[in-house]
């Protein structure tokens, strides 16, 4: 990924780290080196194809190191690079933010669940009294 000086750094960081699986892969690897199958077991909802794609992207950006051992069958391990380890405090802060604000987030979610959405029909046309001729 090319880092652009004239572009929002948050936007670029989210492009680099964002998505459903990349942050979770980084978080799981923060505990130590894992093989592909171990990653699949700790992330049971990710497909093999998606895990492979996400690991390749993380490797291409220098956040994850892939080590292949010359064995039969080949042994492949994934570990965070120094750059990848530098992201972990950001993920920890994100998790801490969720814990700190969990009561408010639960309250908002509960309140939203109790208020039915307005029918879409009322937004399709403007009331006659507001239409200008």
Average the pLDDT over all residues and give the rounded result: 87
CATH-level-4 superfamily name: Winged helix-like DNA-binding domain superfamily/Winged helix DNA-binding domain
- What order do the SSEs take from the amino end to the carboxyl end, as H and E? HHEHHEEHHH
CATH architectural arrangement:
Orthogonal Bundle
Strand content: 5-15%
Number of domains: 1
| CATH classification, class level | Mainly Alpha
Q: Descriptors for this entry?
A:
133 residues, mainly alpha, three-stranded antiparallel sheet, 3 strands, globular
Question: What would you note in describing this structure?
Answer:
- With 133 residues, this protein is mainly alpha-helical.
- It has one domain: Orthogonal Bundle (Arc Repressor Mutant, subunit A).
- The chain is built from seven helices and three strands; from the N terminus they run ααβααββααα.
- The chain has a three-stranded antiparallel beta sheet.
- The radius of gyration is 22 Å and the shape is globular.
- The mean pLDDT is 87.
């Amino acid at each position: 990924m090319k880092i652009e000086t004239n572009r929002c750094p948050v936007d670029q960081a989210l492009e680099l780290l964002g998505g459903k699986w990349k942050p979770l892969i980084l978080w799981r690897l923060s505990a130590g080196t894992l093989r592909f199958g171990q990653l699949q077991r700790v992330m049971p909802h990710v497909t093999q194809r998606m895990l492979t794609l996400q690991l390749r992207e993380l490797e291409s950006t220098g956040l994850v190191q892939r080590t292949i051992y010359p064995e039969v069958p080949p042994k492949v391990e994934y570990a965070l690079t120094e750059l990848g380890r530098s992201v972990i405090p950001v993920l920890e802060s994100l998790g801490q933010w969720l814990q700190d604000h969990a009561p408010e987030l639960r309250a908002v979610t509960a309140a939203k669940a109790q208020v039915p959405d307005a029918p879409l029909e009322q937004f399709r046309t403007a009331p006659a009294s507001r239409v200008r001729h």
